Amino acid sequence: MIELFDEDFDAIELAEGALILNKAVDPQTEQHWARAQLDSMLAEAELAIAHEINPKQRFDALLRLFYGDWGFTGDIDAYFSSENVFIDKVLQRRKGIPVSLGALLLYFGRKLGFPLESVTFPTQFLVKLTWPNEAAIYINPYDGEYVAKQRLQAWLIGHEGPLAKMEAKHLLSVDNPTVIGRWLALLKGALLREEKYTLALRCTDLALTFVPDDPYEIRDRGYIYQQLDCHQIAATDFQYFIDQCPDDPAIELLKSQVSVISRAPITLH
Predict the structure, then answer these.
(1) Where does the secretion signal sit in this chain (predicted)?
(2) Residue ranges per domain, the chain?
(3) Which of 3, 130, 158, 168 is deepest in the core (most CB within 10 A)?
């Protein structure tokens, strides 16, 4: 298992970090092909915007290339598919979710010199664009559209309720390790829905390299071990969560599962 540390991601672009993460979870990830594809597309983008002199027009040309000519788009039909969080699959299918599409837009944009940053807004990932001496503007990487703050406020209300109020912290730029941590959680959730438990287990192992002894991650690992018929290991993880989070609403259910496992005969394989 590859160990991942924050400093690995601070020095590279988000899409490159995501590829490292993807490869660590699934060795079948076509990492070399994806890197070659990124290089080829970057060269194409450089040529596509070369005729534009004004920086804003150059950036709009990049958006037209990314969402128009290249055809990247949000995956409406299978939003929660794990294919939308594996960068090589997103490059192959030209479909993704905000964080994966945003990572690619950031990659090309930052390589071309545009002032782009990551924002983990409560409802979804955003790309922040800040021209010199101007207020920041925000792009929805799902469709490439600029998003006004009024719309962001509406998204927040839909997500948190009518009393939700947008605060400055919601639009702060974040570093790559923060995004990668959330990406890993998205990937694990997608793999669990698809019952790809071995790959999901790698996600929990990786997450625990970032936050060792996280009781919620260990609880999730217990669930995965349970699906893999490793019941005694699952019981150990469940018991750890019970001891660490005695007031959690799921405690009684987990206690009953630990009790059932403890009464079951141990099978030696």
Answers:
(1) none
(2) 6-171, 213-263
(3) 130
Query: How crowded is residue 28: how many other Cβ atoms within 10 Å of its Cβ?
Result: 11
**Tokens at residue 252, please?**
């009684």
How deeply is 245 buried, as exposed, middle or buried, from its count of CB atoms within 10 A (0-12, 13-18, 19+)? middle
Give the strand pairing for 137-140 and 125-129.
antiparallel
Measured between alpha carbons, how far is 230 from 237 in angstroms, rounded to an integer? 11
Taken as a whole, the chain contains a residue count of 269
Q: pLDDT per residue over 151-180, tens digit each?
A: 999 999 999 999 999 999 999 999 999 999
Whole-number pLDDT of residue 1 = 43
Burial of 165: CB neighbours in 10 Å, binned 0-12, 13-18, 19+: exposed
Q: 50: Cβ–Cβ under 8 A, 6 or more apart, which residues?
A: none
Selection from 119, 121, 120, 118 nearest residue 154 by Cα: 121
CA distance 72 to 209: 33
Task: With CA atoms as reference, report the closest residue to 79 among 184, 190, 158.
Answer: 190
Give the residue-averaged pLDDT of 57-64.
Answer: 97
Number of H helices, E strands in the chain: 12, 6
Give the pLDDT score at 9.
Answer: 81
Q: Which two tokens stand for residue 104?
A: 């690619």
Q: Are 145 and 139 in contact (CB under 8 A)?
A: yes
> Comparing C-alpha atoms, which of 24, 27, 33 is closest to residue 5?
24
185 contact partners, CB below 8 Å, separation of at least 6: 207
Q: Tell me the C-alpha distance between 240 and 249, whole Å.
A: 15
What confidence category does residue 263 fall into, taking pLDDT thresholds of 50, 70 and 90? confident
- Contact (CB, 8 A) for 163 and 170: no
